[in-house]
Design a protein that fits this description.
Porin, 1 helix, about 260 residues, mainly beta, elongated
Length: about 260
C-alpha cells in the first residue's frame, strides 16, 4: 500500500511538471550579440590630469545568448560572454591608444519581462541578474603608460602583476532592450546594459610631476611644480551598448 502511494505521488508530480511546462513554455531564442563598451574606473590623487570618457569597440566582445520565454512574458536568459577589459584612463594627454588589461569569460544569468508595443512585432524588455566572471591573460595595459619625460611632464605609471587583485568576480547586471521579431522566427535586439562589479579587481598607482612655466612682470621666468600620486582602481564594472540577432524556436502546437 505504501509503495502504491509513493508511485501515485511520483506520477502526480511528473504530471504537474509536464502540465506546467506545456502550459507556460512559449519559445526559445538563440542568438549572438556584440557592441561597444565603456569600462568604469575610479581615479584619485590625479588632480585635473585625468580623463576616461572613451568607448571601445572590438571583435573581442561577443556573447552567445539563450532566452527561454513563458506565456506570461517572463523570460530567463543565460549567456556566455567573451570580452576584453581595456584601459581607457587618460592621465596626461588625449589621443592615447588604449589596449586591454585582461580578457575574461563570464556567464550572465538574468530574469526579465517582455512588453509588446502597440500590438506590433516590437517589444520592450527589461532584465536583471548576476554575472560569474573569470579573468585571465593580464597584458599590463597600454604602452603609453610607463616612464615619460617631456619638457613639463614627468610621468611614471605602470600596471604590473600586483595591480591585479583577483581572477574571479561577481557582477550585477541590468539591461534594457528594444526587440523586433521578424515573422516570429528571427529577432533583432538593440540593447543598453550595465554590469556592476562587487569586488575590486584592479589597483594601480604611480607618480606624475607637472611643471608649469610663467613669465613674471620683471621678465623673470618662474617654474612651479605639482606632484600627483594617482591611484586607479576598478571593480570590473562596464557599460555596453550593442546589437543582437538570433533565431526563435517555436514549440510544436497540437492541432
Amino acid at each position: 500500500m505504501k509503495t502504491y502511494i509513493k508511485v501515485k505521488k511520483s506520477f502526480l508530480i511528473i504530471m504537474l511538471l509536464s502540465v506546467f511546462t506545456t502550459s507556460f513554455s512559449q519559445k526559445l531564442q538563440l542568438g549572438i550579440e556584440s557592441g561597444i563598451t565603456k569600462p568604469v574606473f575610479s581615479i584619485s590623487n590625479a588632480g585635473w590630469l585625468w580623463n576616461n570618457n572613451d568607448w571601445f569597440f572590438g571583435i573581442k566582445n561577443i556573447d552567445l545568448k539563450l532566452n527561454y520565454y513563458f506565456k506570461n512574458n517572463i523570460f530567463v536568459s543565460i549567456a556566455i560572454d567573451y570580452n576584453l577589459f581595456y584601459d581607457n584612463v587618460n592621465l596626461v594627454r588625449p589621443g592615447t591608444n588604449y589596449s586591454g588589461l585582461y580578457r575574461y569569460v563570464s556567464a550572465p544569468i538574468s530574469v526579465g519581462y517582455k512588453l509588446q508595443l502597440f500590438s506590433s512585432s516590437f517589444y520592450l524588455k527589461y532584465s536583471a541578474g548576476i554575472d560569474l566572471c573569470f579573468m585571465f591573460d593580464h597584458s599590463y595595459g597600454d604602452k603609453s603608460k610607463g616612464k615619460i619625460n617631456t619638457e613639463n611632464i614627468e610621468y611614471d605609471f605602470y600596471y604590473n602583476e600586483s595591480s591585479y587583485i583577483r581572477n574571479f568576480n561577481i557582477l550585477l547586471n541590468q539591461r534594457l532592450s528594444l526587440t523586433y521579431e521578424i515573422k516570429k522566427f528571427m529577432y533583432i535586439d538593440l540593447f543598453a546594459e550595465y554590469h556592476g562589479g562587487l569586488m575590486k579587481v584592479i589597483d594601480a598607482s604611480g607618480t606624475i610631476i607637472y611643471r608649469s612655466v610663467s613669465l613674471l612682470d620683471n621678465d623673470e621666468i618662474a617654474i612651479s611644480t605639482q606632484t600627483y600620486h594617482p591611484v586607479i582602481t576598478s571593480n570590473g564594472s562596464y557599460w555596453r551598448i550593442g546589437l543582437g540577432i538570433g533565431y526563435i524556436f517555436k514549440n510544436r502546437e497540437k492541432k
